[in-house]
Amino acid sequence: MTARYEGHAEWYDDYIGPGAAANVDWIVDLLGPGEGLCLDVGCGTGLYLDTIRSTGRTVVGLDRSADQLRLARRRDRAPLLQSDATMLPFAADTFDTVTALWVSTDIGDFAGWTIMADRSAVPRPRPGSTNATSADVGVKYRINSS
């Protein structure tokens, strides 16, 4: 299956990019200060990688679209991986924080995915860690800490 934004990276960046700065304070507040590795699922063109890094975390971006990652690599020095978010290629306890910002419409079973990300052997929260997921619209979010 082709990634939803494959071949549309420039359009996506031109459309979303100008408004991205308005979300920075909200994302920083959502995450709070932290450390350790943070997986940004659906990082797209990398608009928020530096914002996540500014909270003290070491960010790793993941997106299904090679086209999106091409622009992200130009924008940021973070390690970037191409993978399907429903089959994350990581062992348990790899990440202290997982973000999935504005991707709920891009993952068919987003509610199921958040349960898998929270409970499976993929990134499992450690004591004091944070998983933050954001819906596409408004300020609906949740934070799980163990």
State the main characteristics.
single chain; 146 residues; alpha/beta; 6-stranded mixed beta sheet; 5 helices; 6 strands; disordered C terminus
Can you give a write-up of this model?
This protein is an alpha/beta fold. The chain has helices spanning 9-20, 24-31, 49-53, 66-75, 110-119, and strands at 37-41, 58-63, 80-82, 97-101, 130-134, 141-144. Helix 1 crosses helix 4.
SS content category: alpha/beta
Q: What's the total count of β strands? A: 6
Helices, by number, come to 5
Biggest pleated-sheet summary = 6 strands, mixed
Proportion of residues in extended strands: 15-25%
In the sheet with the most strands, the strands line up as 3-2-1-4-5-6
Average the pLDDT over all residues and give the rounded result. 76
Distance between the termini: 35 Å
Q: Strand-and-helix sequence, N→C? A: HHEHEHEEHEE
Poorly predicted parts: 119-125, 133-146
What general outline do the C-alpha atoms trace?
globular
